[in-house]
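Narrative summary of target 7.
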Amino acid sequence: MTIKEATPFAIAALASLAASGAVTTSARAQGTDAGAGPVLEEVIVTTRRREESLQDVPAAVSAFSADQLRELAITNLEDVNALAPNIKVNAGRATSNTINAYIRGVGQNDPLWGFEPGVGIYMDDVYIARPQGALLDVYDVQRIEILRGPQGTLYGKNTLAGAIKYVTRDIVGEPAFNATLAAGSYGQIDMKLAGSRGFGDHVYVGAALAKLTRNGYGEVFADANPYQFNHVGEDVSDKNIFAGRGEVDFLWGDSSRLRIMGDFIKDTSNVRGGQRLNDVFGPRLPSRYDVRNDMPVNEENFENKGVSATYTVTLNDQWAVKAVGAYREGDGTTFLDFETRNVNQFNVPAKYADHQGTGELQLTYTGSRFKSVGGLYYFDGTAAGSFDAVLGTFPLFGGLIGLTQGSVGTESYAGYIDGTFALTDRWNLNFGARYNEDKKKARVFVAQFGGQIPSNMGVFDPTRLPTGVYPLGAPQSNYTSERTDNELSPKLGVDFKVMDDVMLYAQYSEGFKSGGFDMRGNATVFPGTVDGYKPETVDNYELGLRSTVLDGRLRLNATVFYADYKDVQVTTQQFVTVMGVPTNATAVLNAGKQVNQGAEIETVWQPVDAFTLSTAIGYLDAEFKEFFASNPASPGTIVNYASVTPVINAPDWTISTDAQYRFDVLGGKATARIGYQWRDDTSIAPPPFSRTSPTDQPAYGLLDLGLSYQTADDHWRVAVDAKNVTDRWYRTAGYDFGTTGLFANVSQIGYYGPPRTVTLSVRYQY
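Modeled conformation, tokenized:
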């Protein structure tokens, strides 16, 4: 269905939905007894950088409070797949803490340092620029907001698919304390503590800690090959995370507030286990998590930390100012075994580091007919890393090493305005624009080495080669380069209050993903990589309905959208021979035009006080229209590969539903819950220019069950939650280097979502 075909249908459908709520809404407006039935709780969000009701926001937004997240057993951002339509969030490929977030078929599949995401991740008002360590665990949170569609006006670059906001608990108020202890399958032991209190009326202090541990879903197995390192029997896909936040707030009267916050995450989990998807080297292991490997280290080691300060002041009834400053840094090491065997045929030790500083100044105006927010934004950050592609350790010949290392620094300036003007009591004009300038400077080094490779070698310094290791020709990339990109992202739309609780809206918006440099770029094969690649842009058209009908018992929101992506950034890989050396030559190309269109429906229905049914349905039609790239069989020949290139992580249908029944027992309140989410066929990690792959995930469904009990005074809560009750196997990520070339069938690996788990948790709060 094209946009021309979809638009009349969408307008008719939304108008029909609005009309269906007219009678009940009008009746309530005329004085229907408020006690006739339960009314859904109002949800307050800050999607437009000001507090307002979710139902007043003319955009595709989902929001969930701390109580809702707790009842739905949401423990980290990966669990939000069950909350909203057309989203996919999971751990990225072989890692356990790197986020892979997609909304409406757009995201970031390759977490290489310096690459930009398509979905922005925010903690409060601070943008988390890199995916490493961004798969946040949920503790001491106030709510999570999921914004679908381009957010270029208010949130800037790298939100051309949407944004996920993690909003921490507001500590200002009465003293509070909560402690949670959870135990479950695979030796899970989670401990969470949080508390806050005020000292007089002007100073508030809060802190939260989380220690999250679990044994592995799989383990390292031995085989007939000589095993170099003693990891046999050790866990893989386990969890060992220590995280915390501290905060102090200073208040001056009713108008000024300074909020200072620091946080850290230390993740020393073992590597993630993945199943080889072919039997070229003998039968694969039967478990989806067990592995064979010869890595010198079985543990990942990631650490992220940050500090932020937010100052807000209300100048008068109309004007307010907010200033936000933040600094974050992270680093990590990992070892990837691409052939998952006890022989070194394709191992990749890697290390990574980044830091970022951000500053933002906002000015908010709230008048009777006009509301707006404008501001200035600054970002300065550097991401750096290096990895070795170690290919073999043969007794006579030795082995091959492909070393890649480099860094990219980004300095970004932006100015923006976003506003709403009330044309009448029912019509609003919504507009916005953001101008962004990105300056990037990259240092890239790619070279090949050979010789007798030390068995325990990690990433090495090319200026201090180990004994017996020598360069194979000149470096294939060894350059420093700069580029500057400027983008203007406008937004224009209208919303119309059909009646007090029913709103229709239409909106056009633009967004972009920042241009940059490919840290793996091979300048010998692709000389153009020295100049980098351009920003990816999107034109998005959206129609929506936001309604609360049936006397407040049904919240029904719907959206249809059409998104036209240009200069799509696509990573290509070609195995070629350079100066007689087998080389994996990569390039990031602005190679495509991609069109994503679809529809979303979200409902929350509470027909009686004891029962709530929530449903989210997403339909997505995503495809490449143009994908021009060089033919690997005939370098220099440009071919349109759109017909054989699927859009990854873009299933046609995503459906989730959750039913909760509440009943009184032992003087308190119990809640029984059943949740189910279904996801259509999904392309996970196809090789270049191939429509299918062993990593493709057929359609699947996940069943969750829960039972909780909360005492009448709300101090104690006991819950049992079971996830993936049917123990469904489903791939969330993978690698596939194809069936031809130097690495034919070597690396076809699938990484799977969690198995069936059961958790018992006890929470105390006051």
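Helices lie at 3-20, 22-29, 66-71.
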